[in-house]
Amino acid sequence: MNDKIHIPAKKIIPEGQEVIKITPVAYRALAEVVNESGRSIRQVASMIILQAIEKDLIVYDREE
Length: 64
Known about the structure:
This protein is of the alpha+beta class. It has one domain (1-8, 22-63). It has two helices and two strands, in the order βααβ. It has helices at residues 24-37, 41-54, and strands at residues 5-8, 58-61. The longest helix is centred in the middle third of the chain and has 14 residues, at 24-37. The radius of gyration is 14 Å and the shape is globular. This is CopG-like ribbon-helix-helix domain-containing protein.
């Protein structure tokens, strides 16, 4: 089993808009972490994203 996170590859241009929408399932999972950590949703989501990148946990599945 591969322990990495697989994400379809797609290029975007950051527009300075810092708002994202997540699925209800992802929100509930994030809420559980937030409730345990005592930190804000913004802090927890940012920490998860940055750690996934820093620890090389993401594999980009590029379509050919």
